[in-house]
Design a protein that fits this description.
With 228 residues, the protein is of the alpha+beta class. It has eight helices and ten strands. The strands form three sheets. A four-stranded antiparallel beta sheet has the order 1-8-3-6. Helix 5 packs across helix 8 and helix 6 crosses helix 7. The longest helix is centred in the middle third of the chain and has 27 residues. The radius of gyration is 19 Å and the shape is elongated.
Length: 228
């Protein structure tokens, strides 16, 4: 099992504020977990007794709307921490987390998180910054859903996915989503998402290969996203 103070992933999240001694204590009690593609990490409404520090892989955070349809609200990748808000607030989780590919994460008991929060003010500040950043992203998502039409939201989403997950060696966005998942992100019917993606392909804005998407003209997508 890897040691937390030797893990490069911690430099990308709030755990960078912890001392070697604090990280050693966490290492002694953490559990390394592997989630297969499609496996649920935790479900909306459940209670968790710790946080998950994602070492590698990707997952989606989703919520069921009043019609029972999934709404993807956020993505997480290596370096991110899952479940911290619910643990600190001592509340059930409000989102379901599902692995998009094989994912490796470390589960850290909440007792260790609370002990670190009590002893390390900088850790508290970094946790607050993370929470504020997540809230800002959530507000931006809500604003885009309200102000942009579906075509604009799709263009914005494709640019966001490329920026978030980067691209593979052959130029495709390094995450594979079903048409249903894409429709869930932009808030439309699956048939509409399929039609819009086909339209973007005909306009040579993107290339499609199964679930794989390649951005061919980022500037034109950006113009569409901004309503031009």
């Amino acid at each position: 099992m890897g040691k937390c103070h030797q893990c490069i992933i911690r430099h990308f999240n709030s755990f960078k504020s912890l001392s070697t001694e604090e990280l050693t204590c966490i290492s002694d009690s953490k559990t390394e977990m592997i989630f297969k593609k499609g496996q649920v990490v935790f479900t909306e409404g459940s209670s968790i007794n710790g946080v998950f520090c994602v070492k590698s892989g990707k997952c989606k955070l989703s919520k069921l709307n009043s019609n029972g349809k999934e709404q993807i609200v956020r993505f997480v990748k290596g370096g991110d921490v899952l479940g911290y808000r619910s643990v600190i607030a001592d509340e059930p989780v409000t989102l379901t987390v599902t692995a998009l590919d094989d994912m490796n994460a470390c589960f850290i008991p909440k007792s260790d998180i609370f002990e670190a929060l009590e002893k390390n003010p900088k850790f508290i500040m970094d946790m607050m910054k993370t929470a504020c950043s997540d809230l800002k992203d959530a507000n931006m998502t809500l604003s885009k859903m309200a102000q942009k039409n579906v075509r604009e939201r799709l263009a914005d989403t494709l640019l966001f996915l490329e920026e978030t997950f980067d691209i593979t060696e052959d130029g495709y966005i390094d995450v594979q989503l079903s048409r249903e998942e894409i429709s869930s992100i932009i808030g439309t019917a699956t048939e509409s998402a399929i039609r819009l993606l086909s339209g973007f392909k005909k306009e040579r804005l993107i290339n499609l290969k199964g679930k794989r998407i390649q951005v061919l003209d980022a500037q034109k997508l950006r113009n569409i996203s901004e309503g031009f």
